[in-house]
Recover the amino acids of this structure.
């Protein structure tokens, strides 16, 4: 096994010079620190240790760092500064750290650069396998629920699909005018005959007609003081548009060189028609690429993201202190539980729970290598797609129907 140095240092040589003082100081024999140490001895840290070089100066023992963070989380301590302080003052932390005092930079380097998500998932499911052997869980039954957690992002750095659609339609109108001016320019100056330039046709983006229709309808609704319609049509900007603009810009530069037309710089200078077209295409091309990046970040499954955390989606949170339905950048955290033990964790940027059930179950069966038999969840997971998936995989669904509460009301039976 690689990096045996770290195993020997932490499990065999560690705590030797501090052990004889523990009972004098009064650390209880049933302190959880002993449980943490015992659990760590049963885990395989091969993937974590592979992140470290065997040559050069040795870093803080990664097994020790992981143990300290785990032990701190057992007491609800998640602040790195508090963990650093505990390593200097708390006997349990001092024993687990073997008397060493890692600083905050060491912890941040470990968390950000070493303890990646696949490594943490591997260690987590190793621990689940140990619990299964102990008979505490069977991994064949799963109780699923989720909650939304606010992202560490600015609340006012939002990008909305509807807003991008609105500005894209305006940009396409400007580009259409530029294409017309370009074709008129090469024809009136006979650039098509001199240099063999061809007529350029404006590229098309599917779905812009629907966006334009909603924009016009929203203008009428605004006049009537009515609520606006959402304009979240899925538009896709392929590479044809930016490439066409780049090609036209190169042609305009080539013509300006052959015609001896120099581009003027600064305010108050008269610009030629070639320069005006070139600058117009340059400005619109930058905006088109920007909107393309916006759509690529959002993908097809969400309508917003935060500029300071591009993976976060704006959602309505349960804790709405202002009572105004404010949207905040957040994530949808899904937990799979059995016998009060969190066996699975799945983090999504989807606003609803519909699309999180299948990925969570797939991850559970892949990582545990155990076939699920039963799944229990609330009505938020009830969809035809999810129920069909459970049926196809022979998993018994205990999922509350969406109309269950409605069917119990007197009004529902009277309407029937």
């Amino acid at each position: 096994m690689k990096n045996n140095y770290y195993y020997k240092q932490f499990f065999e040589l560690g705590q030797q010079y501090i052990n004889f003082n523990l009972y004098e100081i009064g650390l209880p024999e049933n302190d959880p620190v002993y449980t943490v140490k015992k659990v760590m001895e049963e885990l395989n840290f091969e993937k974590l240790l592979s992140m470290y070089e065997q040559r050069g100066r040795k870093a803080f023992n990664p097994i020790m760092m992981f143990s300290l963070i785990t032990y701190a989380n057992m007491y609800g301590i998640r602040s790195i500064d508090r963990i650093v302080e505990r390593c200097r003052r708390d006997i349990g932390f001092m024993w687990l750290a073997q008397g060493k005092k890692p600083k905050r930079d060491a912890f941040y380097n470990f968390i950000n650069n070493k303890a990646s998500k696949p490594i943490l998932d591997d260690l987590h499911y190793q621990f689940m396998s140990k619990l299964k052997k102990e008979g505490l869980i069977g991994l064949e039954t799963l109780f699923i629920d989720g909650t939304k957690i606010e992202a560490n992002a600015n609340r006012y750095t939002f990008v909305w699909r509807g807003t991008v659609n609105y500005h894209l339609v305006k940009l396409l109108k400007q580009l259409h005018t530029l294409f017309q001016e370009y074709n008129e320019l090469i024809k009136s100056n006979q650039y098509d005959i001199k240099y063999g330039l061809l007529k350029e046709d404006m590229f098309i983006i599917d779905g812009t007609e629907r966006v334009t229709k909603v924009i016009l309808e929203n203008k009428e609704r605004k006049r009537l003081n009515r609520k606006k319609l959402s304009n979240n049509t899925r538009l896709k900007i392929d590479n044809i548009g930016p490439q066409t603009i780049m090609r036209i810009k190169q042609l305009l530069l080539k013509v300006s060189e052959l015609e001896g037309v120099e581009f003027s710089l600064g305010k108050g200078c008269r610009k030629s028609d070639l320069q005006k077209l070139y600058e117009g295409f340059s400005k619109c091309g930058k905006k088109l690429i920007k909107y393309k990046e916006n759509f690529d970040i959002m993908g097809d499954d969400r309508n917003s993201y935060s500029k300071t955390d591009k993976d976060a989606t704006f959602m309505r949170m349960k804790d709405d202190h202002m009572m105004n339905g404010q949207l905040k950048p957040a994530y949808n955290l899904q937990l799979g539980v059995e016998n009060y033990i969190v066996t699975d964790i799945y983090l999504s940027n989807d606003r609803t729970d519909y699309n999180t059930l299948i990925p969570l179950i797939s991850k559970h069966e892949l990582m545990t290598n155990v076939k699920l038999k039963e799944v229990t969840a609330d009505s938020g997971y009830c969809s035809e797609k999810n129920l069909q998936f459970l049926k196809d995989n022979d998993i018994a669904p205990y999922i509350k129907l969406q109309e269950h509460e409605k069917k119990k009301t007197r009004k529902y039976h009277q309407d029937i």
